[in-house]
Design a protein that fits this description.
- Strands 1, 2, 3, 4, 5, 9 and 10 form a 7-stranded parallel β-sheet that branches. Strands 6-7-8 form a 3-stranded parallel β-sheet.
- It contains 11 helices and 10 strands.
- It starts with a helix and ends in a 9-residue tail after the last strand.
- It binds iron/sulfur cluster.
- The site of iron/sulfur cluster has 12 residues, from loops.
- InterPro entries: Aldolase_TIM (IPR013785), rSAM (IPR007197), rSAM_sf (IPR058240).
- Keywords: Iron, Iron-sulfur, Metal-binding, S-adenosyl-L-methionine.
- It holds the Pfam family Radical_SAM.
């Protein structure tokens, strides 16, 4: 066993923040090595301690499947992907039905997810309607295109508790989103009182430890509500087809590394799509999904887990499931 990795693990477990070189060292260990499994075990223990042994199930309702001008090369909605050629939206009755089903199933948070073509005012109307059918005070989270401070305040006033908003891997190169606008949106969300959800994503086998470390340090500096490791589900005939997907075994080491690297003040550690290997390595936030998904080429996602499947996954990994509103959007 490489003792320098053990020293880095011990430093993180002791509550100290790792520096860039230490984070890169964790992310660079050989797959399936003793060091990789030590990181996974430590990540699990660290997240478990920070969260009293509890994990959360969040839920995602994808509201539209439109060819999106942001053209993120990892997304099935990207206009250049050619998967979705016309704009389709979930009817409001269907959104409310899905929200009620997730509510009854006991999810800890509900995300409303759109492409960049979804109308902002329409989104506020949907939020108000969804809030009206929820029987529990679970946070509603907006996963939408970039916005300014005025709109962030409108989201907050409409009853939104948080925004999932991320500087993605390859932002500005493999997307048509402006990197400064992504940061400005996150700052606006925080100023308006929205908690910002984060993940290091979407990770493929070609991404280097340096690239991942940059985003981990950015997440730390932005004081996000939680972070984690999400893999890219590679859409056919895109710039990433030649790379394919990273294995969940490798992603599990990143999940453990990110848990340790984000430090004790970022308690939650998400992963997507749901994976037992990543949950075993410390991921304690996973998503059930309905409606549209940027990882699926079907308009109604067939990839998304149900809440019951998420519960089963956690049970297999000996996580307790938190009962009540998410602790990360409080
Ligand atoms: S990831 Fe979001 S912004 Fe980018 S193309 Fe897909 S829907 Fe549009």
């Amino acid at each position: 066993m490489d003792q320098s990795i053990i020293r880095i693990i011990d430093k993180a477990r002791g509550g100290a923040l790792l520096d860039r070189a230490e984070i890169i060292a964790l992310l660079s260990v050989e797959n399936l090595s003793p060091e990789a499994f030590a990181i996974q075990q430590a990540g699990r223990a660290f997240t478990s301690e920070l969260n009293d042994g509890y994990a959360e199930i969040h839920s995602h309702i994808g509201l539209d499947a439109s060819p999106c001008p942001c053209d993120c090369a990892f997304c099935s909605f990207a206009v250049s992907a050619g998967v979705f050629r016309r704009k389709t939206e979930l009817p409001l009755e269907r959104i409310l039905d899905e929200a009620s089903t997730f509510d009854a199933a006991g999810v800890n948070a509900l995300y409303l997810v759109t492409t960049a073509r979804y109308d902002q005012e329409q989104f506020l109307d949907v939020v108000a309607a969804v809030r009206g059918v929820l029987t529990r005070d679970i946070p509603i989270v907006a996963n939408v295109a970039d916005f300014d401070l005025a709109y962030a305040r409108e989201l907050k006033a409409a009853g939104v508790a948080g925004a999932y908003h991320v500087m993605r891997l390859g932002e500005g190169t493999y997307t048509r989103c402006d990197r400064d606008a992504r940061i400005a949106t996150i700052e606006a969300a925080k100023e308006a009182g929205l908690v910002v959800g984060n993940c290091i994503e979407p990770i493929g086998p070609e991404h280097t430890p340096d690239e991942l470390a940059d985003l981990i340090l950015l997440a730390r500096s932005l004081e996000v509500g939680f972070s984690g490791a999400m893999r890219r589900n590679t859409i056919p005939n895109t710039a990433f087809s030649k790379y394919g997907n990273i294995s969940y075994g490798r992603l599990a080491t990143y999940a453990g590394s990110i848990a340790l690297a984000t430090g004790p003040s970022i308690r939650g550690n998400c992963t997507h799509e749901p994976s037992q290997l990543c949950a075993q390595a410390g991921a304690n936030i996973i998503w059930a999904e309905r409606g549209t998904s940027p990882r699926d080429v079907e308009a109604e996602t067939l990839r998304g887990y149900s809440v019951e499947q998420c519960r089963d996954l956690y049970a297999e990994c000996d996580w307790k499931v938190w009962d009540g509103p998410s602790r990360y959007y409080a």
